[in-house]
Amino acid sequence: MAAILEPYIYEGGIHKHTLITELLEDLGGYLIQKIPAATEVTLVMLIPRDDVHLIEELGKKLLGKLTRAPLTGTEIAVVSPTLASHHLPHSACDVAEFMRRGGANTNMIGLARGMGRRVSLSDNYERKLINEHDIALFSFGTFSDCIKNKKPKLLEGITIPRIVAGGPRNLKTEDVANADLYVGGIGRVAHRMRKTGELSSLDVLLEKVVEVVEKMREDLAKDPLAVLPARAMKEIHEQIPEIFNVLSPAPITLQLDGLRVKLPYDEFHERVEDLEFDEGLKLSDMAVITKSKMKNYILVKIKRESEVGFTA
Amino acid sequence: MEALETFIVESTVQDEGDAYKSIVADIITELVLGGSIGRIKVVIRPEDSLFQMAVILRGSQPAVKVSDMAEVEISNPIKKEITVSIEQEKYLPELLEKLWARYGRTKVYQPERRTLVMSAEDLDAEVEFLKNMVIADPQKTLQSRLVEMAIRATPEGFRVRYHSMDNNVFVFAASEDILKPEWIEEARQMAKELMGAE
Description:
- The structure holds two protein chains of two kinds.
- Chain A has three domains: 5-68, 2-Layer Sandwich (Alpha-Beta Plaits), CATH 3.30.70.260; 75-220, Cobalamin-binding domain (Rossmann fold, 3-Layer(aba) Sandwich); 229-308.
- Chain A has ten helices and 13 strands.
- Chain A has helices spanning 17-27, 52-61, 92-101, 124-131, 144-150, 196-222, 229-239, 265-273, 283-286, 305-308; strands at residues 5-13, 30-37, 40-48, 65-68, 75-80, 105-110, 135-139, 162-165, 181-183, 252-255, 258-261, 287-291, 298-302.
- In chain A, the strands form three sheets. A five-stranded parallel beta sheet of chain A has the order 6-5-7-8-9, sandwiched between helices.
- Chain B folds into two domains: 6-60 and 138-196, no CATH class; 64-136.
- Chain B has six helices and eleven strands.
- Chain B has a five-stranded mixed beta sheet, with helices on both faces.
- Chain B is elongated.
- The N and C termini of chain B lie close together (8 Å).
- The chains are: A alpha/beta, B alpha+beta.
- Chain A binds chain B through residues 81-82, 84-87, 115-120, 141-146, 167-170, 187-191, and chain B through 11-13, 15-16, 19-20, 22-23, 26-27, 30, 44, 46-47, 49, 152, 155-159, 176-177.
């Protein structure tokens, strides 16, 4: 097994930023996402724990900033009851923004019929789509009565950790059936969340989500994955160059236990299955590769060591 | 009546009512209704899936004429030109729409942002006509904005709605189930109480 990798985000000028990516490659780390914006660049990466200081020193020289981003390599579904102006863009988008600051990749999902109390429901397809993610984060409204009595049915059938964000601060996780965690102070608002109280609630939410992710990572470490998602990503970069033509911000999205490859399934799934590793293994030996519910993408879920019998 | 002199949002749990007040306040700001609403009361009972609102509007606003927002004068009697100098740019889009419809788009000359030049045969009559031309009627758009506000403020699932506009009193009720007559009556009562608050 390779060295323990730590997730970090580097923010700095675009000038000479390739020095960082080169050093990262030499150290055996992985660049997960590169987001250039005019003269600035944001690099999301996994760095071997013992070598973090090397990147930090180089970053300082380049006047950039290296911060730990504990949610790196997770894909979070931010679910809002519908896509109407009542629920979006505030506060669900602010929630997603905070998750991204933590390093996560987020997908906003608006349910087709999630609004209301008695009438709210979720579709089988929607549940399957949400279940493809690592964590489902539901953004609910202001009224405790709804959150306690009516909305939990939207959480049914979700098999990944379910986190609920809502307005009332006095609710406890136990009050919300089916939820694994409840965070208050983030209810429906009609403005961008920028007041102190609102921002601190979002900070609390981020903290709690990080705790959940750390717990999931611990569980994962007990029976590790046959191959690191980041390594599979690197192999895809090397063996399927078409991935560089994908215009999506994250052509390969890492998850805790897999990855989403944003290439059309029918055309590319065989090449993804036949992805070769130095050990003489193929990706299909170590992972289940299916068509994603999201667009026509390829979803790779990596099997555990106990199932495969080895780790690459 | 002062603008927003009464602004009450009540709910079963008062903390939630206060949170909802900020939503309603944001929506009023977004739709620029602050100046038109005198008193407003909202009652929400989530356990009954009920949303009620009563609004008392401040007196009706007069229609906006060109003379209210611009100076109209004959600038060049020989070339038969009329110049409209705009003082309030707020209504410029509506004014341009009307002028383009009357003279044709190419014949309304706009040398700079606040100046419009047109030519006409009978200058005096044309100036008089332009001065009295109504370009915006706030009262007309007010009702549609009020309904928009009600729809935005209501929880989204409450799709069964009742609304009535009588003079300056707007009464609204919404639920996700069939509206009970007594709920509408309650909303009307709220409006009456607001009226009596004078």
